[in-house]
Amino acid sequence: MAGKIREMINRIIEERSKGNPAIEQMTIAKLILKGLNPNRFDSSSADDPEIINKLLIIAKQLNVMNIKEDCINIRSAYSTKASAADAAEDIKSQLTGCNAKLLVFFAAPDFDQENLCSLLQQAFINSIVVGCSTAGEIVSGKLLNNSVAAMAVNSNIISDAKAEVIDLKNENESINAAFNSFEEYFHESAYDMDAAKYVGLILIDGVSMKEEKIMDLIGNRTNVFFIGGSAGDNFRFKETQVCAGGKAYTDASVLVMLKISDRAEFGIIKTQSFKALDKVLIASKVNKEMREVIEFNNKPAAEAYAEAIGISPAEDVSKYFAAHPVGLQIGDNDIFVRSPLKVNGTSIKFFCNILEGMEVRLLQATNIIEDTRKALEDKIIEMGRIDGIINFNCIERTMELQKKNLQREYGEIFKDIPTIGFSTYGEQYIGHLNQTAAMLVFKQKNII
User: Strand, coil or helix: what is 223?
Assistant: First the structure.
């Protein structure tokens, strides 16, 4: 993506000067005095979302009306203001006038989530507004903490959308009611919805331990892909919140069915930086409700894991968890990661369910930066261009980046594309995953 900034600058100058060379020079001077030098940009300059947002604000200040928000279909913003009120106002000012069909926000857990959601819903009254608490926020070019990240998507990308709140204390009935509502709203059976035209977002309470059940119920009702993340609370594991329609919920999930415009398309990126080893572990005894494997290969789980790693059972196996989780291998190349949480006696608790009889492979960590960059580049080649990304990035990946001081390098991967995301307590894509980046990406077709 390149050249949009130069195009916007040219339009501002042309609109203000009306062909008068003196006013043209005056407008260039005004832009420089506002901190934006036109001479720094040409047709090959990357489309930096922060500069695009700044240009939109300057255009409004200079009463240039022909630069409309519909030329920027997806816009990201973030705020590091301390209060919900100040952060909401900051986000509103950055996305001012944006005719958003959907506004997604991810906020640090210390914010008053309900107040923040309510204020954003008031600011974007004609939009569907959804969000959740996090364990760290992601925006174009940056990994943040104690902030609010938001993305506005207009009707050139999403022609229609419907949000539903799922009560996790009554998930079966609540899921059925939600999908009945989707079907009534879109006048289509959820079973028959075109999976290339519809896509779902899911945000879910990250301490509920209900992700597998919800994704299973969704999978029973539709072939539409649902992608999302488990809300966080900065590793306190006490309370996480999901938000919709101006309210915040615990022990709940928010589902959003998106109908993609005929002028747009979406894609999904799932990348996990692991390779499967030859060591196979079969869960021979489990406690499903607690996500606990009691035995692998008919041996105490910790002992069998240590044997697979090649260490003494007396050693602290938890030291190897981050670099050597286990995974379900789907086909030749796809892996659904299951991350160990902690040793419980001779058992191992996981962040994801491993069912009795499941065969998992021992995994070995690879390079997060290289793998993520390649996954994004491959998707850009496949789609031709990407105009926006919602990134659900596992907190375990974020911690690994922090440990190796690679936060800046990771953020840089997304600096040229409007992006938001958060560090999750798990990712949703077909099922429930760990140590994965699951991304929903959008583009508008045939932009000249």
Answer: coil
